[in-house]
Amino acid sequence: MSWLRSAWHNPKLVFYRNTLLLLLATVGGGVLSSLMNALVSHFVTKGNPGEYATFSALRDALGLLTIPVIGMQTAFAQLAARETGPNAPRILSGALRSQIRLLSLYWFGLALCCLLLKGSLVARFHLGDPLKLWLALGAGWLMLTTPAFFGVIQGKQEFHRYALAKIGSDAGICLGVALAVAFIRPDATGAMGGLALGMAAGFSVSWYLTRKDWLTSPAPFQLSTLMRSFVPLTAGIGVINYMFTADSLRVQEYFTEGTDAYNQARTVGRTVVFLVTPVTLAMFPSIARSVARSEKSNVLGQALAATGIVGCAAALACTLVPDLPLKILFPQSDRSASVQMVPLFAWAFLPLAISSVLLNSLLAQGRYGVVPCMILVPVSYSLVLKYWHPSLHSVIYVAGGHAVALALILIGFTLLKPSKLSTSPL
């Protein structure tokens, strides 16, 4: 076992070690998430057709609502990676407290809009019970404020703590949803309530693990300093997130039949992106720190190799045995329609996984010039989905085609040499 111990501590293998640690946490979280989906499907779909699709749509809607601030974790990871001096703890403390105040104001604005448009939102997305909307908003505040704490842990490259926080968060969500749908309300309302409760547990874990950072006496922090990188980070990562979630809401809006089958297949296909997430998490702070110290790094090549192997293996597995994960996750459901869509989703999401790696590399280097070009893709995606959606399969084809277009844009920018116009001094 001595060779294994020496390999684990080999400096040349640090990236793979960190990726493996995060992959284990992600797989563990994926198992918990899959268990949660299976429980929701089992308890909610009995006598409540369409409720699972409603829960999935609300969960994805939360992702869309957080797009304006989705770069918060990455911004704090960049800040923590570059701030290594004696005053770094006070700077992080000031930044964390400032973001809580800022995001709370943003959340109050969202809540006010939902209050004013409650009737329209409930009718348009077939929510039925307005309580679903308010529970989703409660979960939304936690989704907004938690990422900064994860970003600090990520930026410090304390990946054992990150893995612990990730597993703690996913376990809390799984347990909260399971208890809610099994013993309180077996519908989308109960599932959303459990989701909010579980997110509160996840917030508590990350809050506790970063207590030394936010309990430190804060230094005066200018949000404008963070915003110079936060805005392009949010816009870039927001594009990926939008491409990953927008189809679910469009299906909920335009289709009344087959939505449960669509979302079940989509749940399986999403694993391609989730399995690659650890690669980007381990890569970003490493590149950001290398840039700050003017050091060369080969992390991007390692990340792309890991992404290609893991992503293609997952997509191939979804193609060869599409019914197996459906049988595990949704044993009580009719899987005949879902089986046909699982391979389509897997290969449609694979370009997004590659795009995520390339984008995080460019953003970590401060090459923000790619962002304006990226925004054209979700604009086209939205227009095509709005005016052309003859079938559920067509929605997947549109998503996959635009994912390929986004990947090609990012490949082009990655191959170009950095210029003053595309690089931030931060």
Notes on the structure:
This protein is mainly alpha-helical and 426 residues long. It contains 19 helices and no strands. The radius of gyration is 21 Å and the shape is globular.
Helix and strand layout, with pairings?
Blueprint: H1 2-8, H2 14-44, H3 51-65, H4 72-82, H5 88-116, H6 118-124, H7 131-155, H8 159-183, H9 188-209, H10 211-215, H11 223-254, H12 259-269, H13 271-292, H14 299-320, H15 323-329, H16 336-364, H17 370-374, H18 376-387, H19 392-415
Q: Helical percent range?
A: over 70%
Biggest sheet, in brief? none
Structural class: mainly alpha
Number of helices: 19
Residue fraction in strands: under 5%
End-to-end separation: 43 Å
Using the CA coordinates, give the radius of gyration.
21 Å
Q: Which residue ranges are poorly predicted, with pLDDT under 50 across at least 5 consecutive positions? A: 420-426
Query: Per the principal axes of the C-alpha atoms, what is the gross shape?
Result: globular
Order of helices and strands: HHHHHHHHHHHHHHHHHHH
